Amino acid sequence: MKILKYGILLLSLSSFADTKIDTFQKVIKSDCKDGKVSNLLVKKSLIELVRGFECEGKFTSLIISKCTEIDCQRMTDIFRQIQQAKPGSVVGDD
Amino acid sequence: MHKLIMLFLVLFSVETLASMSTEKKLEDIENRLGDLEVSQALRKFRFSGIFINQIEEFSSVRRNTDLISPALASLKADSRDTHLTPVMMRVAFNISAEITQRMNFYSTIGMAKFWNLADRNTRNLDETGNFQSLGGSYTFKDSRANFDMAYISYNFANSNWTLAMGRMPTNNGPPLNRVDGVKRTGTYPSMSYNNIMDGVAGIYSFNKYLPKDNSLKFRLFYTPFIRVNRNDRSRQVIDDTASGSSGNSGEPVDSHSSFYVIQSEYERKNLSWAKEFDFYLSHYHIDKFYSETKQKVDGTPPSSLLDRFYHNGIEYFRALSTTVYLGVDNLLRTGFGFTGSFTHYDFNYAGEDYKSDNVMFTVNYTFDNKFNAGDVTGIEYLKTDKNRAPTEETTIYVNPFYNMINGEGAHVYYTKVINANQIVRFGHFSYQTKEARMLLIDLETKGSASYVRWKVFF
After folding, report:
1. Residues 6 or more apart from B278 whose CB is under 8 A from it?
2. I want to staple B136 with a disulfide (CB 3.0 to 4.6 A). Which of A66, B148, B429, B453 is the partner?
3. What percent of chain B has pLDDT over 90?
4. Contact at 8 Å (CB) between B232 and B221?
């Protein structure tokens, strides 16, 4: 049941915006030079941010502890930029 | 013994049934996840949007100059002072679709109006058809929505080219995004042209040949102005101010004005001295543009000031413009960012040649502490000369700061980030302008405006 629930959550998040997940993953992994963060950890953190847990979320705080380049402000800034991004706003930058 | 064998058989059957049951459950879960994946793959649309409400208090002191003599009283501008306190809203709904892995559709449907006020003409200085298209839904007419963006983008396989066609996001370009602390929100530098254009574009990216964190792109646009008779789309526009041939009054106007833009962009991220450095060079060329309200008439001009508007023939306008844009983000990790925009125009208007040079500088600071992390404050400074033509149609204010002609002014602001979906911006404009002979503006003005804007992202 847990697998099914998690799968549904992930796919629902995907429908929230594939490009937003991709962008979030790319930025976090690019910023996090110290430790490796898995795709799964990044996605779980994004779920927490979408649900409003901000930096107090279990997986978000785990990323912050693993990556010296990412603090709470950076994390919320990345999430805010993704939330406020308008698709197609620069012609040719898909 | 018999009992042992029986027990063994029972246990073996139970185990087999249990494993079959788990396998069946897993298969069932995989099937249901597969249904979701297929459903997701078939769901192509993505939605987002913004909702803005704003109150602005604007005052302007105006005084006529001696540019236009009393004998031409009908041409003199209204010199009465202005005081307005409008409340306005803007809604923009973004719908995009991944048509195929290589083809995307992007659109924005927008509306901007004053509270409880409709049936207005556009906010443009020129109400004619081409200019109304440039402003899209930003014209504060009424609550009807317009497409401010509707284009297809196609990335060719194994190629560095992307093609685009449609109504494109050529407005709200840098540095206008900085006041909200968001990433770039438009394609052209705003000092070059802050309007919505329809056309076709080709973008070439050199990124895969460059080291990490470097980006070099060329963007080519062709966005012609089209003219068709207002009442009969099978006929040309007729210019009534010109004497026609073959005994007909008026002269047909060309239906097509070319408008090219070539833009090169270099971006570098994660430098030792800044988070990002941007350099854009944007060049455009307009030819045979027809402006209905700026045509020539027959007769003797009542003053030398109007010489250029008095003789036969349609007058087409042409222009060349070059804009250089420089942007720096988070200089020396201090939180400060800077931009500089320099725009030069050469154009021919009503038979006379003009040059114009205009500059815009901005400084912004992003807070980095637990009290107001992410908030942005800054200043925009703009200086324009007497030959500047207004090129700004899509900002959401009543004060004309961004369209100043022969003016100088500043905009200071503080943007409070409430959360990832809401910001509130407090700002103040202060500017002054002088007379401008080219557009027959015989006013000196001093204006100021304060505003509060609440913006929600969804």
Report:
1. B174, B265, B266, B267, B325, B326, B327, B328, B329
2. B148
3. 64
4. no
Strands (E), B292-442: 316-329, 336-349, 352-366, 376-383, 407-419, 422-433
What's the rounded mean pLDDT across residues B331-347? 95
Around Cβ B97, how many Cβ atoms within 10 Å? 15
The pLDDT of residue A11 is: 43
Nearest-Cα distance to chain A for B423, in Å, is 11
Tell me, yes or no, if B415 comes closer than 8 A to chain A by beta carbon: no
Report yes or no: B183 at the A interface, CB cutoff 8 Å: yes
Beta bridge partners of B360: B341, B382
Distances in Å between the Cα of B180 and the Cα atoms of B146, B410, B425, B456 are 24, 17, 8, 11
pTM surpassing 0.95?
A: no
- Residue B320 pairs in a beta bridge with B285, B346
Q: How many CA atoms lie within 13 A of B376 on its CB side?
A: 25
> How near does any CA of chain B get to the CA of A62, in Å?
20
Residues 6+ apart with CB under 8 A from B86: B55, B56, B58, B114, B115, B398
Task: Determine which of B183, B192, B276, B370 to mutate to test the interface with A (most A C-beta atoms within 10 Å).
Answer: B183
B185 closest CB neighbour out of A4, A11, A86: A86
Place of tokens 């930003």: B138
Sign of CA dihedral A37, A77, A89, B458: positive
Q: What pLDDT is stored for residue B89 in this prediction?
A: 97
Instruction: Let me know: does B453 contact B72? Beta carbons within 8 Å.
Output: no
Both structure tokens of B152? 């297809």
Q: What is the pLDDT of residue B454?
A: 98
Q: Residue B417: how many CA atoms within 13 Å on its side-chain side?
A: 27
**ipTM score of the complex?**
0.83
For residue B95, give the amino acid letter: I
